[in-house]
């Protein structure tokens, strides 16, 4: 008989998820929860105090390594898209991360709440395609008020080696009732790179972004706060970030969605990817140096 520590539901539970993949569930008393797969350090679910799911997860998501999981919050590291020699979006999203409960870098800000600490280090195989001894620490916190916080710390652990350079994104699939009604606020007047036009630089002239077809822009040097309004669900998802200057806004639209095998029919309507990122100015770390990023999600009634 295992010793029972928690009389109530354990705030941090490790169970087997889809296909037996290890999953960590964080819960708070008021009913909020977060689910994280060790495969990819991939958050697949976040529910607020009202028990509403805020993240989109495809009905056809494939939980089978090395396929990345379609939906939730994939970690894009050390390369965004095809901006380098690695496979698109790097490899962190299709590696098995480990629990890192005993090493808390002082530099990562601790918030009140339940959290899990995850770690990714390169295998010998990884070093063949990206020859840099990095340590990626990720603390995923669920606050007492049901907010989700992702705190990242990347270290160049190759103490007598070379500097390395990376790009990064939290590829967040936010759940929305209808993509054509969603409003993204906080990106007015900013320059962006249009991924659909060879990343040519343009300027956003709208105050509020609405999406009616395939959309794939990298907004540059964005403010710390971005809001995603869902009028049908009468709620706003608030994104606050530090160390992540860029924001990718992506939706494949109807035609492109049909070519994505792990996306169900019509499911493109039910998400908008709003990705806090560091892309335009890649991050370079000398041996021993660390980089930090912080992302916080909360909800508000409209
Ligand atoms: O299908 P994936 O490799 O997960 O990439 C999905 C999408 O990620 C980002 O949002 C890029 O800006 C898009 O160009 C890409 O299509």
TrEMBL record:
InterPro entries in alphabetical order: Aldose_1/G6P_1-epimerase, G6P_1-epimerase, Gal_mutarotase_sf_dom, GH-type_carb-bd
Key word Cell membrane present: no
Organism listed in the record: Ambrosia artemisiifolia (Common ragweed)
Name of the featured protein: glucose-6-phosphate 1-epimerase
GO cellular component: cytoplasm
Catalyses which reaction(s): alpha-D-glucose 6-phosphate = beta-D-glucose 6-phosphate
Keywords, in A-Z order: Isomerase, Signal
Family: Belongs to the glucose-6-phosphate 1-epimerase family.
């Amino acid at each position: 008989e295992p010793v029972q520590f928690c009389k109530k539901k354990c705030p941090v539970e490790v169970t087997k998820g889809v296909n037996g993949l290890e999953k960590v569930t964080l819960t708070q008393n008021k009913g909020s929860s977060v689910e994280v797969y060790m495969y990819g350090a991939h958050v697949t679910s976040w529910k607020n105090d009202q028990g509403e799911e805020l993240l989109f997860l495809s009905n056809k998501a494939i939980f089978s390594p090395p396929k990345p999981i379609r939906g939730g919050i994939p970690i894009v590291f050390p390369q965004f898209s095809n901006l380098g020699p690695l496979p698109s979006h790097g490899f962190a999203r299709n590696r098995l991360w480990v629990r890192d409960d005993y090493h808390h870098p002082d530099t990562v800000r601790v918030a009140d709440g339940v959290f899990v600490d995850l770690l990714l280090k390169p295998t010998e195989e990884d070093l063949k395609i990206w020859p840099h001894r990095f340590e990626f620490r990720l603390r995923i916190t669920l606050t007492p008020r049901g907010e989700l916080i992702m705190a990242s710390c990347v270290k160049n652990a190759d103490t007598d080696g070379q500097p390395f350079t990376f790009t990064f994104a939290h590829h967040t699939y936010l759940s929305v009732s209808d993509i054509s009604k969603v409003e993204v606020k906080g990106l007015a007047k900013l320059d962006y790179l249009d991924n659909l036009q060879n990343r040519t630089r343009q300027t956003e002239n709208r105050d509020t972004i609405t999406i009616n077809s395939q959309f794939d822009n990298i907004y540059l040097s964005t403010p710390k706060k971005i809001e995603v309004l869902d009028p049908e669900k009468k709620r706003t998802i608030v994104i606050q970030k530090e160390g992540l200057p860029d924001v990718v806004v992506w939706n494949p639209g109807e035609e492109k969605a049909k070519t994505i095998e792990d996306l169900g029919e019509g499911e493109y309507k039910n998400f908008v990817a709003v990705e806090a990122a560091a892309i335009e100015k890649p991050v370079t770390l000398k041996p021993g140096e660390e980089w930090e990023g912080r992302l916080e999600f909360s909800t508000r009634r409209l």
